[in-house]
Amino acid sequence: MSVPKYYVRTFGCQMNVYDSDKLADVLRAAYGAEPAATPEDADILLFNTCSVRENAQERVFHSLGRVKHLKARKPGLMIGVGGCVASQEGATIVARAPYVDVVFGPQTLHRVPQLIAARRATGRPQVDIAFPEIEKFDHLPPARRSENGGSAFVSIMEGCSQYCSFCVVPYTRGEEVSRPLDDVLTEVAELAAQGVKEVTLLGQNVNAWRGTLGDDTPADFALLLEYVVEIPGLERLRYTTSHPKEFTPRLIEAHARLPMLASHVHLPVQSGSDRVLAAMKRGYTALEYKSIVRRLRAARPDVTLSSDFIVGFPGETDADFEQTMQLVEDVRFDDSYSFLYSRRPGTPAAALADDTPHEVKLARLARLQARIEALAKDYSRAMVGSRQRVLVEGAAKRDPRELAGRTTHNRVVNFAGDARLIGTYAEVTITAAVAHTLRGEVVVAATHTLSASA
C-alpha cells in the first residue's frame, strides 16, 4: 500500500500556522503520511481556516469550490475543513459543500484521524467542533524541528476571554485556557535539544497566560518567560500576540532583565480614539497605551513596536481618525497590520449603526498605511551601517540563491551566504534599506553565546 500524502492550506494568523504544523505531525503519526506538492497530489486535503475577516471566510469556500472536481478523479480523497470557520459554521460547511468529509475545530485537530476513520466507516461526513479545553496538547505527537529548524512556534494557550465587540475569536476558539507551565517548558526544551535556536510563544492573548509552579504558587506570563530563557540551547525568545490590558509592570521589567527577549513587541492598539476604544471594549485608553509604550522603551530603549489597527469601525468620525493618526505620530510604530472594519455576525459590533461612506474609510486606511510605511522606512534607513545578529531562516524569497534572516527587531535581511548557515545565527552588517526588507553582508557566523544586544 502506498504512503498517503497530505496537503494543508493555511489561512489567517500564526496560531493557524502552528496548528497546521501540528496537523501535519498528527497525519504523519497516524498514517506515516508525507506532504504533497500540490492539492492534486494529495490523499488528504485540509483547509485550516480563519474567520476574523469576511473576505478570508469567503476565500475558504472559493478554495473548496476549486478542489471539488478532485473528488471525481480520486474517490478516496478526504477533504477537511478546520480552524475558526469550521467552529463558526460547523455542519453548515457540509450543507454548502457536501463533498467535504470532515469538519473540525482548532481544539479538535488531534481527532482528525478518528474523524476520517468514522467517515470511511459510516459514509457520513463527520463534524467535531467541540471545545475540549487543553486536551489537544495531550494527544499531539512530540515537538519536532522543521526542515530549516532555526525557529519554531510554541502555543501556550488557547482562546480569548476579552470579548472585544468586533471579534469572533472567543466564539470560534473558546475562552482562555492556559497550558500547564511544565508542558510549555517540555515542548520548548524538546525543540531546543533538536537544534531550535529561537522560539515564539503563541496565544490569541499570549500575555494573559496563567499557571502554577509545583507548589501551587501562581505563575504569570513574566515568570514563564524567566523559566523559558533558562532552557539550554535557546538563544532568542519572542511572543505574540499581546494585549495592552495584560501588559503588566512585571512583563515590562522582564524586557529590562532578560536580554534573550527579542527587541520587538507586537502590541495591537486598534484605534487612537478613546470613544472608539470604548465601543470596541478594549479596556484601555490611548493615554494608557502610550504609558505602556513609554515604560517599555525605558526598560528596553532599542525596542521596536508593531501594532494592529481597525479603520472605519462603526461610528468612527474624522476626529476619531485624527486621534489615531496622532497616536501613530506619538508612538512611531515600526510596522502595522491595518484593515477596514469587517462586520462579523454574532458580535456586538455587528448591531452598531455604520453610516461612514466606504470611500472615506478607504482614504483613511490609505493615509494610515502610508504614514506607518514611511516610519518603517525611517527605521530601516537608520539601521544601515549597523551590525545585526540574524537568525538565518532559509533562501531569500526574491532570489533563492541568497539567504534570508531575521533580526532581533523582526526585520528581514537578505544577503549572500553559504547554505550551511541556515538554522544558525550570523553577524550581518546592514548595507541598504530596500522596500520592506534590508540588505546585508555576512561578517562572521555568530557564536552560540547570547550577546547582551541580541
Write a short abstract of this structure.
Helices cover 36% and strands 23% of the residues. It is built from 14 helices and 21 strands.
Describe this structure in words.
A hairpin with a 5-residue loop joins strand 18 and strand 19. It is globular and about 60 Å long. Helix 9 packs parallel to helix 10 and helix 10 packs parallel to helix 12. The protein has a six-stranded parallel beta sheet with strand order 2-1-3-4-5-6, sandwiched between helices. It has a five-stranded mixed barrel with strand order 17-18-19-21-20. The chain has a three-stranded parallel beta sheet with strand order 7-10-13. The C terminus is likely disordered. It has 454 residues and is an alpha/beta fold. It is 36% helix and 23% strand. The longest helix is centred in the C-terminal third of the chain and has 26 residues.
Secondary structure elements and pairings:
Elements: E1 5-10, H1 14-31, E2 34-35, E3 44-49, H2 54-73, E4 78-82, H3 83-89, H4 91-96, E5 102-104, H5 112-122, E6 126-128, H6 135-139, E7 151-155, E8 157-158, H7 169-172, E9 177-178, H8 181-193, E10 198-202, E11 210-212, E12 218-220, H9 221-228, E13 236-240, H10 249-257, E14 264-266, H11 274-280, H12 286-299, E15 304-311, H13 318-331, E16 335-340, H14 358-383, E17 387-395, E18 403-406, E19 412-416, E20 425-434, E21 437-445
Parallel strand pairs: 1-2, 1-3, 3-4, 4-5, 5-6, 7-10, 10-13, 14-15, 15-16, 19-21
Antiparallel strand pairs: 8-9, 11-12, 17-18, 17-20, 18-19, 20-21
Helix pairs in contact: 9-10, 10-12
